[in-house]
UniProtKB/TrEMBL annotation:
Gene3D superfamilies: 3.30.70.330. Residues 3-80 form the RRM domain. This is RNA-binding protein. One of its GO terms (molecular function) is mRNA binding. Residues 70-99 are annotated as: Disordered. Pfam families: RRM_1. Residues 74-91 have a biased composition (Basic and acidic residues). SUPFAM superfamilies: RNA-binding domain, RBD (SSF54928). Keywords: Repeat, RNA-binding.
Length: 99
């Protein structure tokens, strides 16, 4: 099955290739991407891995808490946010009020 994983608590020096290497032994990795701050260019400490796996629970169990670069990874199935800016379809503020 095709899954997208959220990987948090990444060490600052981890790059896309190192992230991919961690998950390669657990399935076929389609992409591994560390998220960087667009202003500073520094890692934001998390990333996403898209991969083909047979047993999602086993992959999470085997990688969550795994120490890489001196920090334990936090691995969860990524939530689908639906749309480019997330699932927020409500007004959330003053958007629909009429005065």
């Amino acid at each position: 099955m095709q899954v997208k994983l959220f990987v948090g608590n990444l060490a600052w020096g981890i790059d896309d290739q190192q992230l991919e290497a961690v998950f390669r032994e657990h399935g076929s990795v389609q992409s591994a991407r560390v998220i960087y701050d667009r202003d500073t260019g520094r890692s934001r400490g998390f990333g996403f891995v898209e991969m083909e796996v047979e047993d999602l629970a086993k992959v999470i169990r085997d990688t969550d808490g795994l120490e890489i670069g001196g920090r334990p990874l936090r691995v969860n199935e990524a939530e689908d946010k639906g749309g480019p800016r997330g699932p927020r379809h409500d007004s959330g503020g003053f958007g629909n009020r009429r005065y």
